[in-house]
Amino acid sequence: MVEAAEVMEVMEDRAMMRLVRKSACGSCHACGMKSEEQEIRFSVKNTLHAVAGEWVMVELPQKNVLHAAFLAYGIPLILLIAGIALGYLVAGAVPGLTPHRDMIALGAGLILAAAQFLVMRAMEKRFKKSGKYEPAMVEILNMQEKEGE
């Protein structure tokens, strides 16, 4: 994903960026924007030494976007389904638990999905430190390039 964004403010080695939503964004919501919001603000490392008011191209590689989506949504879904299946089998095998099989299965699934959330939360600092899931500046645009879009 490569987009043009405006530098709003520079703070030491970071820049606060403003990205205006394009009509192509539609109902995707991958960036977390609500449908009524028209812009998103985020911070990036100012590797190009851009100044406030300049437009720059920022990039987040597609494979990183897909990997982050899998970590945030795919793994919890897999664990939810696995927990339900495991809970259902275990409750069916233990005498006395069979009448409560569905509730135990649901509980096991929710516990595994919640555990994944807690693991992700604990690893959040490591993800931020790696910079893998953070957009990066790739090019400073001049105003003629920006107005020509």
UniProtKB/TrEMBL annotation:
Cited InterPro entries: RseC, SigmaE_reg_RseC_MucC
Transmembrane regions listed in the UniProt entry: 70-91, 103-123
A Pfam family annotated for this UniProt entry: RseC_MucC
Keyword Flavoprotein: no
UniProt KW keywords: Membrane, Transmembrane, Transmembrane helix
PANTHER family: PROTEIN RSEC
Protein name: SoxR reducing system RseC family protein
